[in-house]
Design a protein that fits this description.
43% of the residues lie in helices and 11% in strands. It is of the alpha+beta class and 381 residues long. The radius of gyration is 27 Å and the shape is elongated. It starts with 8 loop residues before the first strand and ends in a 21-residue tail after the last helix.
Length: 381
């Protein structure tokens, strides 16, 4: 509960100084707060972080609460792990990684790393990525016995090493996410690194197909199943993973909607179902008789993401499209064409399952409807 004087506040942060864990107290100059801070047991000052510091343990944390109760609001958003567990995931086991035979000269992830991945129900894809990325990191610093002794400088040094190797921005960001997972989630130190820099992400615009190109792709699919796959990706704005996870009961023909279960970020949502594709889906169902998933290799066996990619690429090639076409380009095209037809941006955000409207706003930069009515100055007389 905040005190009656909300203008007074302190912020708690995690610090590591000389391999020891400290709690940092950040505050704006205030005589009352300064006096209370000075009276805390074992209090000190860090010139590097410009914060008051004291050993990070439960007794000192309780002293802070007792001292500032009713006087200042204690901001702990950077101090306690408060990320939700992914309740929608199936139980995760990383036993295959635990049981790997020892490899001489190679360090494996500590057991607590595996435990946190399982307890928090991370997807197996994320778990594989984090384990691989973190092991490369700890083996880069194989000579370091205590990982807590690594500073912002060493983390930046590792990032610099990856840049020098020519790793992509996406790869470097994944590696940094795995490192932060260890320090922030496994070791319980949110916001552990203050001076670690991520690569500046290029503001690339999404690649979009024209409606004519999409229709040519659909017309040139080799069979009914492939036509349904390409049509659904475009007409419903589905991600590749969402498409292959669709089950028969997710097609809500009475409402002309498709239910997307546990999409990106473990969120459920509804998106559009085309009348044209519904007729083809009914024909497809009669012919292929899927048992569990809408698209299957064999009864009950889910279609793979790589196969979806190949279906899309072949359809594009047959449709005379020279550039490389991916399933996600069909999703981008879905959003852009809706925007060009006058659909509200917030409705498109809901259909795509974006958390932030800013993510959806990128399509305003590629929508050409309206722009093509602007007279080019070179053509003006």
């Amino acid at each position: 509960m905040r005190p009656s004087t909300p203008d007074k506040s302190i912020t708690l942060k995690h610090l590591v100084i000389n391999s020891r864990r400290y709690g940092g107290i950040k505050f704006y100059p205030d005589k009352v707060i300064q006096s209370l801070v000075k009276n805390l047991p074992e209090i000190g000052w860090s010139n590097k972080y410009q914060m008051a510091v004291l050993p990070n343990n439960p007794s000192h944390l309780q002293n802070i609460y007792d001292a500032f109760k009713g006087v200042a609001w204690i901001n702990t958003q950077y101090f306690f792990v408060n990320r939700p567990v992914n309740h929608g995931n199936e139980p995760l086991s990383v036993d295959a990684y635990r049981k790997r035979p020892a490899k001489k000269g190679w360090k494996y992830c500590p057991e607590e790393f595996y435990q946190k991945l399982e307890i928090r129900k991370y997807s197996i894809h994320t778990a594989r990525s984090y384990i691989g990325m973190f092991e490369r990191f700890i083996n880069y610093y194989a000579h370091v016995e205590d990982l807590m002794s690594l500073s912002d400088k060493e983390i930046n040094g590792y990032i610099q090493h990856m840049v020098q190797l020519g790793r992509s921005d996406s790869y470097i960001n994944q590696a940094l996410n795995a490192i932060k997972f260890y320090y922030e989630v496994v070791m319980g130190m949110p916001n552990r690194f203050y001076e670690v820099n991520r690569p500046i992400q290029p503001e690339a615009l999404p690649k979009v197909l024209s409606k004519k190109q999409v229709f040519r792709m659909i017309e040139n699919c080799s069979n009914l199943k492939h036509r349904c796959i390409v049509s659904l990706l475009y007409s419903s704005g589905l991600r590749r993973g969402e498409l292959i996870a669709l089950k028969i009961e997710d097609i809500k023909s009475d409402r002309m909607m498709i239910r997307v279960n546990s999409g990106k970020g473990r969120k459920d949502r509804y998106t559009l179902l085309s009348e044209r594709i519904l007729d083809e889906l009914r024909e497809y169902f009669k012919k292929y008789r899927p048992q569990q998933y809408l698209f299957e290799y064999s009864p009950g066996v889910q279609y793979s993401g790589s196969s979806v990619g190949k279906v899309v690429a072949r359809a594009a090639k047959r449709g005379g499209i020279i550039e490389r076409v991916t399933p996600h380009m069909l999703r981008h095209s879905f959003a852009t064409h809706l925007l060009e037809s006058g659909i509200d941006l917030r409705q498109i955000q809901t259909l795509l399952g974006h958390n932030s409207l800013k993510t959806t706003e990128v399509y305003t930069h590629v929508a050409v409807e309206g722009m093509n009515k602007i007279k080019n100055p070179l053509d003006l007389e």
